[in-house]
Amino acid sequence: STAAFSASEIRTNRNVLTSRSMATESDEPSVSIERRDFFGITAAAAASTFLIPAQAANAAAGPSAEDLQRIRTGYSGITYLLENFEKETTVCRENGGECKRDAEPVRRYMGLRSTTDPLFQIEKVFAKVKNMDLDIDKLESFFEATEEWNTAVNMSNSMAFISQFGEYNPGGGKDEVLKYLNESKKQVELAEGALKKIMDCLDMKP
What we know:
Blueprint: H1 7-21, H2 28-51, H3 54-59, H4 65-83, H5 85-88, E1 90-92, E2 99-101, H6 104-109, H7 123-128, H8 136-164, H9 174-201
Antiparallel strand pairs: 1-2
Helix pairs in contact: 1-2, 4-9, 8-9
């Protein structure tokens, strides 16, 4: 099967056989070499058909329906967080106790807290997209969007983490907590935009 060879290899083998076939029939050593090479090439092509591991086909699979649903669910979660940011990042003690802002939900919605979060290690799903039959322009836009996503996730995580301990740091306080919490929100907004671009490239509806 020629499927196991690249186009250049096939052309090279064809040229070798053509040039050797032009030798005179009286040149017995050349004829012998030609036959030996021909059968060697043919045998290699046949053997390669059976040597391709079955797992190679599996490794080339694109995202599953479940993978794509994780993206969709994660996007909905981020949208909800942004629409209800103050509510989601405010924790109050029971029985009318003191309320304070908490950045932990930011990290949770971004898939940074638990293996059960929809966006947990979503980069592994993004990596499968290269095996999909996408238009080259869409594929380029997709990978640009994943870079934007990665940057926004890392920055939102950093800002949220600083916010969580802002009250206890030297010179810190509630103002510092709120400052870095708002910074984390900006990064979540960028992440939402990047994830929307990713979904558009994959022709996914929210």
